[in-house]
Design a protein that fits this description.
The protein is α/β, with parallel strands linked by helices. It is built from twelve helices and eight strands. It has helices spanning about 25-35, 45-60, 65-85, 90-95, 105-115, 120, 130-135, 140-145, 175-180, 235-255, 270-275, 285-300, and strands spanning about 10-15, 40-45, 150-155, 165, 190, 195, 220, 265-270. α1 (about 25-35) runs antiparallel to α3, α2 (about 45-60) packs across α3 (about 65-85) and α3 (about 65-85) packs antiparallel against α7 (about 130-135).
Length: about 300
C-alpha cells in the first residue's frame, strides 16, 4: 500500500467478494466515503458487486452520504435475512462457538446433504435467499443516471471459464446472483442462454474494465480474501477453502502485475481481520459479526486516507 495518494485524477475502485466477509469492504467504503472519496469507476464480484451497486446508486442519488446509507441498508438487510433463516443461532451457541457455524445442527445437516447431492438436486428451483435482498437493493434507473459511476460486475461463464463483465445498462438481479453463485451451494444462474458461477473464479475482481478508456490515477483495491493463512489445512473443508482462496487470488495477481505505469495502487487488506476466522464464518451474516468486520474495515481505511474531493 502506498501512502499519500492524490485525488487530482480519476479514481477507480475494485472490491473483492467473500460472502459475509464482504462486511469488511463495507467498513472500508464507509470510511472512504466519509472522507469524500468519489470513484468514477467501480468493479466488484459477489458481495463486492453488491457493495458496488450500493455505492454507485448512492453517489448518483445524493453523493457520499447517500452511498453510506445505501451500504448500511444493504448489510442490515443481509443480517435480517439471516436472522429469519435456518442458520440463525441463539446466544448460547454464539458464546460457545463464536462465529463458527460448524457445530450448528442446521449447518451440519446442510453440509452432509451437500456431500451426497448436487445443488441442482437439493435446490431444483434455484431458490436463493439473496434474491429478496438484491431485489430490494437494485435500482436500474439510478445506475443509468448521468452522475452514476461506471459499474462493472464480474461473473464466470461455466462452460468457457472466462470472466464476463456486465455494466450499468445490463446489471440485473440475475447478474448479481450469478456473480455470487457459489457452485457448491447454488445451481448455476442462467442469463441469455449462458450459465454463470461466482465471478471470483475468473477475476476477484477483474481490473481490465477499470483501465478503459484511460488508466485511473488511483486504484483502490479492497481485499476480503486473505492472501496468507497461517498453518496447513487438515480436513477436506479447510483444504477446499484454501484452494479457493488461492484460485481467487491468481487472476487478480496476474492483472496487478500488468498495471499501466502511473497507476497508484492502494490496497486495503483484510488478512489481520480474517485470517484467523473459521471457514464457516464466510456464510455467517449474523448482525454482530457483520458489525465487527465493518469496524475492522473502517480501521483499515483509516491507515491510508485519501485526499477528499474538492
Amino acid at each position: 500500500m502506498v501512502s499519500s495518494p492524490r485525488h487530482s485524477v480519476s479514481t477507480a475502485l475494485a472490491i473483492q467478494g467473500g460472502g459475509a466477509h464482504g462486511a469488511f469492504a463495507w467498513g472500508v467504503l464507509d470510511r472512504l466515503l466519509e472522507d469524500g472519496v468519489r470513484p468514477e469507476r467501480i468493479c466488484g464480484v459477489s458481495s463486492g458487486a453488491l457493495c458496488g451497486v450500493a455505492v454507485a446508486q448512492g453517489l448518483a442519488r445524493g453523493g457520499p452520504e447517500a452511498a453510506r446509507e445505501a451500504l448500511s441498508n444493504l448489510w442490515g438487510a443481509i443480517g435480517r435475512a439471516h436472522d429469519a433463516g435456518p442458520l440463525s443461532r441463539g446466544p448460547l451457541e454464539r458464546w460457545l462457538f463464536g462465529w463458527d457455524l460448524s457445530n450448528n445442527l442446521a449447518w451440519a445437516s446442510m453440509e452432509a446433504a451437500g456431500r451426497l447431492f448436487s445443488p441442482q438436486q437439493l435446490n431444483p428451483f434455484g431458490h436463493n435467499p439473496l434474491r429478496s435482498v438484491v431485489a430490494g437493493l437494485l435500482d436500474p434507473a439510478a445506475l443509468r443516471l448521468p452522475g452514476a459511476p461506471r459499474l462493472f460486475v464480474g461473473a464466470t461463464d461455466v462452460e468457457t471459464g472466462q470472466s464476463v463483465v456486465f455494466d450499468n445498462e445490463s446489471i440485473s438481479i440475475d447478474v448479481l446472483l450469478a456473480s455470487a453463485c457459489v457452485p457448491f451451494v447454488f445451481p448455476a444462474v442462467q442469463i441469455d442462454g449462458r450459465h454463470y458461477w461466482d465471478g471470483g473464479y475468473s477475476g476477484n475482481p477483474p481490473l481490465a474494465p477499470l483501465m478503459a478508456p484511460a488508466p485511473p490515477g488511483d486504484l483502490l483495491l479492497i481485499r476480503v480474501q486473505p492472501r496468507t493463512r497461517p498453518g496447513v489445512p487438515r480436513d477436506s473443508a479447510e483444504i477446499l477453502n484454501r484452494v479457493n482462496e488461492i484460485a481467487f487470488q491468481t487472476a487478480l495477481d496476474a492483472e496487478l502485475s500488468m498495471l499501466p505505469p502511473g497507476v497508484r495502487l492502494h490496497t486495503y487488506a483484510a488478512d489481520k481481520a480474517l485470517a484467523g476466522l473459521p471457514i464457516t464464518s464466510k456464510l455467517n451474516p449474523e448482525p454482530d459479526f457483520l458489525r465487527e468486520l465493518f469496524q475492522a474495515g473502517r480501521a483499515a481505511a483509516a491507515l491510508d486516507r485519501l485526499d477528499p474531493v474538492g
